[in-house]
Amino acid sequence: MQPQNIKSHFLSTLFSRGFIHDCTDLEGLDRALKDNKRLTAYVGYDATAESLHVGHLVNIMMLRWFQKFGGIPITLIGGGTTRVGDPSFRSEERPLLDLDEIKKNILSLKTIFKNYLNYDNENNKAIMLDNSEWLPKLNYLDFLRDYGKFFSINRMLSFESVKVRLEREQSLSFLEFNYMLLQSYDFFILNKKYNCTIQFGGSDQWGNIVSGIELIRKLKNKKSFGLTTPLITTSDGKKMGKSQGKAVWLKSELLSPYEFWQFWRNTSDSDVEKFLLLYTEIPSADCKKYGSLKGSKINDAKILLANKVTELCHGKEASELASKTATNVFRYGEADENLPTKLISKKDLEPDIGIVQLYIISGLVKSGKEAKRLIKENGARLNDEIVKSPDLRLNPKNFNNFVKLSLGKKNHLLVKIK
Q: What CATH number is associated with residue 352?
């Protein structure tokens, strides 16, 4: 089935904006969406950290579009499956978290989804669930007898996520191998209790999604669907989710709204159109128009992208403040106090501190070697003045209220004494 033959508004929107990688039955899903807009779909998120990052945004945005077109989205937090760890396309087993850490992460994750989905809308309000409500209650022998018989080891070994791990002779524990069964059971429970007929996920989840669909068919003789998104990479081939080796978190406690805004402002010219289509709700035609801008005009599109994505994630006020801070820093060279701030102890300045060490403590560089290279290349600035020598030393009197460290044109940080 070709995208131009799609009848449902939801799927045609996803196709036009670049969301769709694969579907278990595109024609059937299109027909189901066209005949009944009030379908239910879910995405699962394990609680492996206290925040999601921008690599998760595509599926969150897909749930948002689904709700806008009348569907009921379910955000399923994996309080149970986090205790096992998803092995999909990983080279090694995930570190196992204790229950207290998982619970802490769950509470933190719940606040993120509320920025994108409406959990109060009476007509099709989003539903937030946690699979620890049912998975820990399973009796192992009963589970094997009642559900294990429906899973074929041959079939499970054929899925790419498992096959790649085995071909590379990378260990796959029995604990991890059970993850596919648990995710399939999640889909079955959501189908049974909430009439959820669609699972969204990244392309790495294909095997898990298909297994869930087959379990529902075998147990309930009902039709369900899987829809996957592509792996989103930047134009230079890097996987979305990290910037300079650091995760681009969606929680302001881990990454300030300004740093988040700056990540999107630093988008390369060739990625502007794609990111506008995926991460904003700007009409497709306008996204293409902005993405085709050339020269300095493309910077206006990047600012628009940063403003809109930050507004969705952190709110309009935080987005406007981040944009204003960037203007103050880049256009006027001001040391705006809304910049990310690193607090250091007075002990770090006794009797003084070298500029190289200060850059390391700030987190702008990882090593003294990197700091010295940047200073040599005139890429390091202190209070907007080029640092000319790696031997420069600072004492408490040099700080006043703070000092501003800059790395190139895009990375700025205030350092204050506690």
A: 3.10.290.10
